[in-house]
Structure formats: structure tokens, C-alpha cells
Amino acid sequence: MIRRIAPVLGGLVLLGACGSAAQPVTSPACGSADAVWAASDYSSSAVGSLTVAGAVTSTAGKVDLGSDPAIASSRGRLFYVARDEDVVFELDPVCGTPKARFDVHLASHDGPSDPYDLAVASDGSLWLPLFQAAALLVLAPDGAQAQAIDLSSYDADGNPDASAIAIVDTPAGEKAFVALDRLNPYPTSVEPSWMLRIDVATRAVEATIPLAGRNPFGSMRLDGTSLWLAEPGNFDDATELDAGVERFDTATSTTALVAHELDLGGSVADVAVAGGCGAAIVAGPASNVNPTALALFDPSAGTVSVPASASPLATTGFDLEGLAWGGRALLVGDRRRASAGYPVHAFDGACAPVERPDAVFLPMPPIAIVPVTPP
Fold first, then answer.
1. What is the tens place of the pLDDT at every residue in 278-297?
2. Secondary structure of the chain: what % helix, strand, coil (to 5)?
3. How does pLDDT run across 246-271, given as a tens digit for each residue?
4. E strands, 104-144, where?
5. DSSP conformation class of 192
6. Which backbone phi and psi does 251 adopt, to 5 degrees?
7. Is the peptide bond before 69 cis (omega within 30 degrees of 0)?
């Protein structure tokens, strides 16, 4: 569900006219970091960086970043997608501070465009799936809107619910892979979800590939030639056979479920893979509660080593958000407030079975974490 709350934080406010290109934002210098984080209480938001040792930077109170954010990482560049504002901020890839602003409102669409993700092509163009506008928006390298690719024909209700994108160099050339949830009737996941393959050079749709799972949720994670997808199906059912963690091979456009939600112990809300280690945040089926837990799996064999029932980190509500391998540790965001703030838990060891005692604390509830330092 989109949240249409538009707060204005104190300090520097960045608001521009529709159709404007990138606008510069002053950002302070910073040192090294292990990850960039985004946080939101769904009335205001913040972004910054952290080190596993405990240092945290934040832009809270400096920029109006909207209330419903996502973070996108592509070709070494980092972006903060303000879904409710139809705006994207480019971030410093280490500090997390905003340095440019792009308007992504599609004027031809009546209502919010609702950008969900972003990928960068080799020519510097920016590609964004618009969840409500049923389109794929392409921005020129300078941020000007260059083209809107109509996606309305890919679902009978006129909107295939495009939710994620990755642009990858394949043996057949540079391709954009766009995940289509196809929530029809909205918001239920009943019909098959699809992966759309688009040739970047011609911007022509080449193929629609049925996914093995349903309802791709959040950003896809690129690891080599593989895209990893969290596919919860319906969050009120943790026993669906076509839900779990999916691996999509961009070289062959073939795909398969690797870890199933029945084995993981819940609907997958986020996934992170590094080498031989896979981690997922899974949610239980209790309606309007959805308790979350950290689960671990082998990305090659698909075997689940730590299901939700044996998790080292579990909550009674939908509290775990943000998952990444960074700073040689597995980082997990936790929206439950502690005395020092909102914790980001760090796990060490072989595929992260042991939690470090010194959590990092954020000033607001975390919603996304992106690594700066490889694990």
C-alpha cells in the first residue's frame, strides 16, 4: 500500500517542479562506512551510513526525503527512492548523503507514479519501474525524462505492478530485467508473476518469463549472473508451494525456487546472498501482525540451516526490515526501539550464526540497508 503523507523536515528542503532534471544538494564529507541505511516512521524519514564498529551518520532533519522510502544500488551508484513523493535522490555511495534530486512523476498518469526501484544502464540512463503508473520510466543521464515504456498490457487489470529492476550485461547484450508482481485482484497474489526482459539498446521488450514464485517483494539482489528474489506469495499464508527465495539466471533467463517458505518457516520479505551464505527475513502468517525472524539457507543446495523456529533473532510483529552482508558481517535492521535507538544487529561467523554484542543504533526505525564494504 502506498502512503500519501508528505512531511517537511526542518532545515534544507528540496522541492522542485515536475519534469526538472537533477538538482545539486550540499552534502558534508564523511569517512569510510560498511553500509548505508534508510529509515522511516512513515511520517518522516532519514538516511545515512554506519560502520559495524558503531559509528553512525544521518541526514535526519536536513532534507525532505518523503515518508515511504526504498534504496537502490546499481553500477556503483546509490539512490534513495521517495515513493510517496515521486522523487529520487542520488546518494553519496559511502556517506549516504543526498547529492542530486530527480523528478520521476509521470505527467501523463493521473495520480502518483509510485517509483519502486532504479537501475543504471551503461550509458548513464536511469530506469525506474512505476508501480501505480504501469510504466517503466527512462531518464537521460542528466535526469530529464526520456521515455516511458507502457506496461499496461502485461496484466488484465491494466497494471502488472512492476516492483523491481536490474540491468545486467548478458551474453546477448545489456538487458533490463523487470519483476512484475501481477497482483490481480489487487492486493492478492493469485496469478503467476513474470520477469520482463528488455533490450537496453533498443528499449524493446524481448520476453516475458514466468517466475517460479509469486509476488516479488523489494529489490532484486544481483550476485554474479544471478538475481535473488524474495517471493512471499501472500503474507497471510506461509504454506504456499510457489513462494520462497528464487534465483533467476540472467545469462539464460531461466529460474527456480531455491528455498521454499515451508522450509524457511515464513513468507520471505527480504533476501541477501554472499558467496556460500544466504539469509532471509521471513514473516509469519498472522494477519496485521506478521512476526518476523531471521532465517539462513545454503544458496547452492537450497537447504535451510536455520529456519524461523530456530532463529537467533525473532520478533512478535513485522519489525525486522533491512538485510545486507556488509563489513564482513550480516546486518539486520530492527524497528523495535531500544534505549539507545533502533538497533542494527550484526552477526559473525560461518554464515552468521553468532550475534555481536555491540549493535549499532539508528535515530529512526530502519527500512533498508545496502552494503558499502563487501563481506
1. 999 999 999 889 999 999 99
2. 5, 45, 50
3. 999 999 999 999 999 999 999 999 99
4. 119-120, 126-130, 135-139
5. P
6. -75, -30
7. no
